[in-house]
Amino acid sequence: LFLNSSFEDFAYQDKAFPIAAGQTISQPYTVARQTELLQVEEGDKVLEIGTGSGYQAAVLVEIGCKLYSIERQKELFDITKLKLQKLSYKLNMFFGDGYKGLSHHAPFKGIIVTAGAPYIPRPLVEQLAPGGRLVIPVGDDVQTMKVICKDETGKVTLEDHGTFRFVPMLGKKN
Ligand code: SAH
Predict the structure, then answer these.
(1) What is the DSSP string of 125-168?
(2) Disulfide engineering: 71 pairs with which of 29, 59, 77, 167, CB 3.0-4.6 Å?
């Protein structure tokens, strides 16, 4: 459901594949690991940056998260919105810039970034709820999976969880 039909035969391989607009669907292991690191449960409000194919979004909606997802490529936004509607997945989709997050809907219990970020965008840390977690791959060619945890007093700590490879987080609207 989430791959271009030409890649259908490979849908159950643990690899990343091209989707529209020069982007990729993350490898299933990466989706699983980021989901695990997010530590969210049914009813939690979650923000995803990089809707892409909608696969990670579908996983989070299946868990029962109230999901907000931002995509910066119009082509992908339109295709994926239609697809998730057809599959009856209920979430709030936005065409826009993930660097800014969604201040109107903050705070979020979890924020997950699914593109390689050059740095940790400050608005995303600000939009985390107390007790919330931001999972974000940071780096240029190779990224370190960072988890930023905000405690109940608002204090922030940082964890590293290995290296991954993502398409870069885009700066300009397309
Ligand atoms: N979660 C997706 C992964 C797609 S790859 C999936 O499950 O398929 C990363 C996605 O992030 C791409 O679709 C890309 O267009 C999007 N993206 C890149 N920079 C962005 C930004 N600044 N804001 C929002 N989305 C962005």
Answers:
(1) HHTEEEEEEEEEEE-SSSEEEEEEEE-TTS-EEEEEEEEE--PB
(2) 77
